[in-house]
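2024-03-11 09:14:02 DEBUG pipeline.ingest accepted 1 chain
2024-03-11 09:14:02 DEBUG pipeline.ingest length=405
2024-03-11 09:14:03 DEBUG pipeline.predict start
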Amino acid sequence: SVAVVLLLRRSTAGHGGGLFASLGGWVERRRTPVRLGTAALVVVLAVTFGVAGLPALSADPAQLRAPDDPPTLAIRRLAERFPDRMLPDLVAWRGTDLDRGLTALHEARRAVRDAGGAADWSGPGTLVPDRERQVRILGLLAAFPRDGFAARAAAALRAEGLNPVPFAPAIEKLASALAVKRPLAGADLRSPALRPLARRFLVEPGGESILVAYHRAPEGSRAAIASALAESDRPVVATGPRALLEGIASNVEAEFRLIPLLVLAAVLAATAVGFRSLRLALLSIAPVVLGMAMTLGAMSWSGLTFNMINIGLIPMVLGLGVDDGIQFMNRLRHERGRPVAETARHVGGAILLTTLTTCAAFGSLVLSTSPGLASMGYLVMLGALSCCAVTLLVLPALLPARRKS
């Protein structure tokens, strides 16, 4: 900021000599081309937003950390090796009857599979399958001689030259599993044999039961999965870290489509009261409206997206950008009877100086290794420079050449 002030000191001295001495005259001589260029810019931005849409709000936490950060690299490697364990998608049921919960999750798995998910599905159904499948398996095991299984297994291990003692706990668990003569039910998840395995799928806080199934949903399919589960009459919901982040991002994005409009409305009302003229107020906020449109267009072209850090800067950029138009129109109001080009020469240096110092301050964030912080710097610089350019080049061309005294 100090360097910018020193470089522009001579340019902003007096009545705007040096760099800005011919700014107003340049705009005055090219009033028609600037107006045509502004209309063309509006058309280009409209086409851009129609084709590419507004910059999306990303809920990916990886965009907030440096790609070469050791924890980020470790998480990425673990996710490649264990995709169903790192940030899985969940389907949860809440109630008191575990049998109904198991049935609901069985049906939910089919609904999730039809909606494009259910990859790497892992749930309580792996411990307690549906009743028809259990009956079929018990019928096959009925022909298997289960009496004396532990002794026969130990003898088979000795015949292979192995010591059966280390295998004894596993043999006992397998023998107890083969001894089951009835289909398992939801209550068996609380049994001593299944509880250590069911702990990952069953939580019972305050006398209520929550059954959870894990799966991996492809990107872009979570909305369809949530809709499919919502249409079911079962109390089953789609949840999980990714679904939670996407839900938060969706709510934030919906609110931030309204907040800028409220900010502009409040600024317009305050400016109209201060200027005692709705026309002057509309001209004052015109640079920030067109400047923000330019910023969003540049973000769409460059691939810069909103994230949970930089989206909060939108009201601040609006507040910074509207100052340029207010300062210009305020100076113009006090210089009635003088050419608009003279006003542009007088106030142009100050507006550009404040814009460059703002860019110098926030631009330092682009040096951050965190993509989230760097995006804050890019967003503020784009917004400040766009509003400044519209104020100094477009706004004078939209005004009459000479204001009436």
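2024-03-11 09:14:41 DEBUG pipeline.report The longest strand covers residues 209-216.
2024-03-11 09:14:41 DEBUG pipeline.predict end
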